[in-house]
Amino acid sequence: MPVPIAHDQAQQQSVVQKMGMGAAMGGAVGMTLGFLFGGFAIISRGAGPRGPLNTLATYMASSGGTFAFFMSIGSVIRTESRNPLTSTQLSSLQSQWHSRRIDRLEKRSD
């Protein structure tokens, strides 16, 4: 028998899931920037004694780790709310906003 799905309220993500998503996004962005900046550094100044691949990997790992750390913390802080709205409350607020907007537009046209 299939499990019934509740449509009235969306399921919240846990703090660990939010941190993981932020770390994944930050890591991807950081590694991309590390690739760009590391590639530029290798082209402009040379690879150095460790070779080009190791130098590029160091740039990518340090940039990716830094971005992942800060994005994981930032995503949790940004998405935390003290009093989340249910879907019925949200739809009620949206309909009130829409009716007020229509009233303002009608007053302007008069």
From TrEMBL:
Keywords: Membrane, Transmembrane, Transmembrane helix. It comes from the Eukaryota. Pfam families: Romo1. It is found in: Membrane. Its main location: membrane. GO terms for biological process: protein import into mitochondrial matrix; protein insertion into mitochondrial inner membrane. GO terms for cellular component: TIM23 mitochondrial import inner membrane translocase complex. InterPro entries: Romo1/Mgr2. The chain crosses the membrane at residues 21-44, 56-77. Belongs to the MGR2 family. This is Protein mgr2. The lineage of its organism: Eukaryota, Fungi, Dikarya, Basidiomycota, Pucciniomycotina.
